[in-house]
């Protein structure tokens, strides 16, 4: 009986990868031009209303003004131990070149956003060729999260750029050995140079964000798998040694390691998380990233459509990742699950689409890899139609989100020009900035103020500040104020925190506080600077209840000695300049 001949297995779909530099890089130029066009049209000159941007600016100022790396906004100005120094150093370079406004400093994240997209293209081209890489890079460029990050003074853009520089360099140096789209090994004459670039970029990524630790681990493991023992040793001794020194420097300060184990780093009183809590945290974060953060970050969509898009993306990317990781993974194949695991373990309050930025190009790449594998037996026309539909699934909503972001940026530009850098952040933020500017001129030199946003307060006033304690125990609240030497507190409405904790202290012991200055726009309850009386002069509160049940605290005026007898020239909250960088006339 004759044996049935077996049908030969379909060969993997492969795309030739021409050696870089052999022809005009048309695809790369197109990617950069499109990215610049998208980014520049959504450029927003407004100041960010989060504390991180002001913190980075203050650290840059510390490097330039004092040659130190200190928390200048805190009483006592301790050494800074939380954020690594690369991004503040980049901002410091921009300041040296003349940047004095929030808009001028945005050149740094904008530049690195462009580099991120270009390097993601080069990384993908190394594996799958220029057209495939261009699709990955353009979907990355138009994504909502990448465009948003391009105009805020945050460390994600340089971290992403350095990450993909490292991934690209290691792919250039180490021979590919995977089932999907195998690439012939390159000539080894420049291997050492590319290994050096990859190692340095990984180290710089770690010292840009501590979340670069998975990249260091992935690079080290991959080097060992490829028997590059000398490079692995250099990575461990050089970068690892500096990382240990940085960790030791921050041993006594507030670091991510200590905050990692808290249920909520912003509410330490809630305690620490256990094993069961960590498992629950991973599951909750996985749901958020898969069903919301990543699909929203890529498309700008919100609502019921994000869940199926996220499930499809992660499912396809998982299959594509497996094909690329077998039989021997590259640095990217090790980095992606490690980094994903890290952000899933973080406290939920640290979660968000901007933390998933380094995962967006690999997810798109691996999903595209899986799609090509599934379509390997289809004819060319069908393959093009399916791939085009997949690209449109992300590109169309992303372009719609880009249009909305462009309109927002245009409106903010007009507001910033007339009403200042914080005018686009809402009335409550503007009142807070007004209070800081007034405090810098009228409060005594070195006066410590309890606020919700200490770093913004310092940048706008030059006065040290601490976050008021998140406790309803008025005795603990006042004890904390006394321990840091605070004699002022801001009753703001940036969020609900002051309405809960400061208000509770006022209701419980209103006599411990005095009214100093109000800032109001409209008919809403005003933002107030309150004085904190000395411990020996703190009577109970006099609370009055209106007919509708509203409680009002009868508060005395602060004594004259709580303000400067001769106020300094007052800065204007309507300026685009950063007061810390142009001086406080002291």
Question: What does this protein structure show overall?
Answer:
The protein folds into two domains: 26-45 and 106-402, no CATH class; 426-582, no CATH class. Helices cover 56% and strands 6% of the residues. It contains 22 helices and seven strands. The protein has helices spanning 26-41, 51-65, 86-96, 102-105, 107-128, 130-142, 144-149, 156-173, 191-206, 213-225, 229-249, 256-260, 275-299, 306-325, 331-345, 360-374, 380-419, 427-442, 454-461, 474-483, 497-509, 579-582; strands spanning 448-451, 465-467, 486-491, 513-519, 527-532, 542-545, 551-554. A five-stranded mixed β-sheet has the order 2-1-3-5-4, with helices on both faces. Helix 14 packs across helix 16.
Relevant terms:
5-stranded mixed beta sheet, disordered N terminus, 2 domains, 7 strands, two-stranded antiparallel sheet, elongated, mainly alpha, 6% strand, single chain, 586 residues
